[in-house]
Amino acid sequence: MKSLLNSEDLKQQVILKKRGSLYLTTQHYNIFFSDEVYVLVLNKPGNSFSTDFIRKINDKLDEVENSDGPACLVTVSTDLKCYSTGLDLR
Length: 90
Hints:
Blueprint: E1 14-19, E2 22-25, E3 30-33, E4 36-42, H1 51-65, E5 71-77
Parallel strand pairs: 4-5
Antiparallel strand pairs: 1-4, 2-3
């Protein structure tokens, strides 16, 4: 499968990709999605949730909500250590 993200995508903190289908595989499971699949990628070191980061995520979720027909949303992180470190208190 071709890489989901390109170099332009990686310049953004929150990325939304729309795919016709998606096949995910790990050591423990295999999942295949068909129809409309949206992949929300969190691309910020630690993915700590600041007000700005939450707004960006919310904008992408609005895109999914406004889509026609049934859809699937998969959220992933580019941070290999964690999905999110939680709320940014700074």
